[in-house]
Automatic annotation (TrEMBL):
Keyword list, A-Z: Hydrolase, Iron, Metal-binding, Protein biosynthesis
PANTHER family: PEPTIDE DEFORMYLASE
EC number: 3.5.1.88
InterPro entries: Peptide_deformylase, Peptide_deformylase_sf
Name of the protein in its database record: Peptide deformylase
Residues at the catalytic site: E156
Pfam families the record matches: Pep_deformylase
Similarity annotation: Belongs to the polypeptide deformylase family.
Catalytic activities: N-terminal N-formyl-L-methionyl-[peptide] + H2O = N-terminal L-methionyl-[peptide] + formate
Task performed by this protein: Removes the formyl group from the N-terminal Met of newly synthesized proteins. Requires at least a dipeptide for an efficient rate of reaction. N-terminal L-methionine is a prerequisite for activity but the enzyme has broad specificity at other positions.
GO MF annotations in UniProt: metal ion binding; peptide deformylase activity
Gene Ontology BP annotations: translation
Taxonomy of the source species: Bacteria, Candidatus Kaiseribacteriota
Amino acid sequence: MRTILPADNNPALREVAREIPVADITGAPVKKLIAQMKALLSKEEYGVALAASQVGEPVRLFIVSGRALARNSRNAPDEPEKKIERPAIPDQVYINPVLLKISRTKKEKHEGCLSIRGKWGIVPRAEKVMLKAYNENGEQFTRGASGFLAHVFQHEMDHLDGILYTDKATNVYDEKPEEHE
């Protein structure tokens, strides 16, 4: 079973990831990699996405957790007395993603990374993006995103290009330990 490797022990994080041949997308090695990445991501309480580079495999593949997709789809603030149980949104797989559009408008957002634990940063990212990718069945699709999900897409695309959020952050700081009373 693979693990999420720390940045200081993972040279794949600094490589430009290679494309997966479309004919290989539905093959056993890619299916196994996707299954392992989904399993790893599901164990991360605060993890919202995972790039193959983070598990030492420099291929153009990332997964966005259903939790992140659900968070992005909320329009109204949660009202405790009106909690609606929605069916879980499945994780989404992005293979050989390409950014088609990126807005000029940027917004600074708080960002962390499963490969750089204990640190956070403020990173300026485009407000809106559109990308094209293949899903795990080898079907091409296009997806637009704004806000939080656009931010996630850009973070993961950076991983595939050998860039870490700390390279772009205007401020990086240590995670504050939770106060115990």
